[in-house]
Amino acid sequence: MTYSVKEIFYTLQGEGANSGRPAVFLRFAGCNLWSGPVPDLAVAVCRFCDTEFVGTDGVGGGKFETPGALAAAVAAAWSVPGVAWPARGAAWPAPGEAWPARGAGEPFVVCTGGEPLLQLDAALVAALRGRGFTVAVESNGTLTPPDGELWLTVSPKAGAPLKLARGDELKLVYPQTGAEPERYAHLEFRHFFLQPMDGPEKARNTRLATEYCLAHPRWRLSLQTHKLIGIP
Question: Whole-model pTM?
Answer without folding.
Answer: 0.87
